[in-house]
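Sat 14:20. Reprocessing the chain from the morning session after the first attempt stalled halfway. Input below, unchanged.
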Amino acid sequence: MSESQSCKILTLEEIAKHNDKNSTWVLIHYNIYDVTKFIEEHPGGEEILLEQAGKDASEAFEDVGHSTDARELMKQFKIGELCEEDCKKVKAIQEKNYWYNSSSNNNKSFSSWLSWLFPVGAALLASFAYRWYASSH
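Finished this time. Tokens:
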């Protein structure tokens, strides 16, 4: 979409209707992209785009770590922007997911830390027991 063309303002409901191979729209950072013509060329395979079709694909897009070239390429598929009301809904969902994932990650790192604590403690205990046994005999 060129700068001179007006940008359509669309809703989540409208985007959700375009969720198959014949019409594939994705929402990425409040911008809507019609990637129908790009599906077969997508380096990650068409399944990835079809999984995200009709939805907010922002997190999935960023998780992959798309290149600058990919970000430039996607500009040609932009067909609109998300309406302000739905932007607020998406932002609230993203914030909720951020806090959920943050607390989940904290639990994972705590769990990971505990998985090291037991073996190290057991090794230290075994070492002290051996030294005590060896020194008493």
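The mean pLDDT is 84.
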